Amino acid sequence: MDERVIGRSGQRASVVGLGTWQLGADWGDVDEKDALAVLEAAVESGVTFFDTADVYGDGRSEQTIATFLRARPELDVFVATKMGRRVDQIPENYVLDNFRAWNDRSRRNLGVDRLDLVQLHCPPTPVYSTDEVFDALDTLVAEERIARYGVSVETCEEALTAIARPGVTSVQIILNPFRMKPLREVLPAAREAGVGIIARVPLASGLLSGKYTKDTVFAADDHRTYNRHGEAFDQGETFSGVDYASGVEAAAEFADLAPEGFTPAQLALRWIIQQPGVTTVIPGARSAEQARANAAAAALPDLSDETLDAIRALYDRRIKDQVEGRW
User: Fold this and answer.
1) SS3 state of residue 264
2) Residues 248, 244: Cα–Cα separation, whole Å
3) Is the pLDDT of residue 150 over 90?
4) How many CB atoms lie within 10 A of CB 143?
């Protein structure tokens, strides 16, 4: 699988990585055997980038990755984690002492002395403009607790603020055919600054897979049940903020645009991979089969201009007005 350099870090990541939120919590039950099978299928398919967070299953996702990598010491996998969502979301909690404690916990969970990449996990907006926060992150690098740092954001404005920080290696942002606003300013600014872009929620919480109908019922412990209107965290994390009923209709139209040999999910992933400035895209997977199918998108041919234009037209007609004013 092709690899791309992660911003100014010099490190490389597979163009399709693996998001591991599903392996921790909030997507229904995934047992450890299945979680390890997902990780195995991903690396066997060429994936060299895992994204996790300390809050996924309260550390379960990090611990599962550690278990897997201990059994496969020959692998060279870059592991990005995130911090900040285990406490009340107020700017005052984003301080050096907390950062050290959170890092210590993640290092224990992952079984490493130094974390490859630590990202602020969608903190309150004022955090991105606070010099002391980035001074503290620089201190963690100097103390060799972390090798580098980045941010995960909700909005394009937050991304642009973070990109202006000289120590930021990467920005993780929601980007998919139902969330195109980052193409206008965020990706060009990241390319200019030498900042990597990690594209998350690439399938709009599975909506772009084309598998769901208006009658689909998700498990009670699945965020697609309990966070449709932002009840638990930012609404944009669930179906990319798109209204579910109209999103299902738009997703059916999207699926019809898939060229021969593409699944709808692979169409979405291939669209993201082709966007200039994207470093890696991190779909999640609940089964080994899904992990292999996602990784296979990296080897598919580029989408034609005709297909790209049709995807843009669908977005402009059905989705744009729902999401661009908020994120």
Assistant:
1) helix
2) 6
3) yes
4) 12
